[in-house]
Amino acid sequence: MSSDEGQSRQVRLVGAVAGMGSGLTKVAVGHGFDTIKTRMQCSPPGTYRSAFDVLSKIVRNEGIFALYKGATPPAVGWAAIDSLLLGSLHNYRLFLLRNGMTETSPSGAPRLTLLAHGVAGLFAGWTSALVATPVELLKVKLQLQSQKHASDRQFRGPIDCAQQIVRVQGFAGLWSGFTGSLAFRSNFFWMFLSFEVGSPRQRGITIQPY
């Protein structure tokens, strides 16, 4: 194996590990806030007065750990989602670099244009939607269960939730809302484009087409 091939594999491995770490960190820090947001968005009007009211009612009626209902799918899934996002982003950048979406850097070497960074981010976002859609679906369905006792819940856990969806809607039911997920994840075009605009030092770095 050549040194270039070894370096390419190392870059892709680092990207995958970084994506896994990113996904798990988001679950640990953000899932409780996401549960509050989901309850406010999806509960009947008048159920809650504010985010603090949601928080107090969940803790009082269901316990503090209820804030992490539905955390298992994103804990597993977001690691895969972000790994897929960052890994595919790298490969889309290489593809665009090899196919001429380049400009000349100050050093004279070819580098991706700002538009190419945005396009790579767009395609990476769409690719990650394949995994993100069922993960988000299971997460939301579990978060919306407000019953304190397990015997009163519609779903016993993420596996039971997935089985019930497949039983009623078929396997494709796990991808309900896929077009909405594609639309939402189109924002990665602007995210990765703006990152390059806002990081002048990064603009001087070229991506080697291994």
Automatic annotation (TrEMBL):
GO terms for cellular component: mitochondrial membrane. Signal peptide: none annotated. GO terms for biological process: mitochondrial L-ornithine transmembrane transport. It is found in: Mitochondrion membrane. Solcar repeats lie at residues 10-95, 112-201. Gene3D superfamilies: Mitochondrial carrier domain. Pfam families: Mito_carr. It is a multi-pass membrane protein. One of its GO terms (molecular function) is L-ornithine transmembrane transporter activity. Its main location: mitochondrion. Keywords: Membrane, Mitochondrion, Repeat, Transmembrane, Transmembrane helix, Transport. SUPFAM superfamilies: Mitochondrial carrier (SSF103506). PANTHER family: MITOCHONDRIAL BASIC AMINO ACIDS TRANSPORTER-RELATED, MITOCHONDRIAL SUBSTRATE CARRIER FAMILY PROTEIN L. Belongs to the mitochondrial carrier (TC 2.A.29) family. This is Mitochondrial carrier protein.
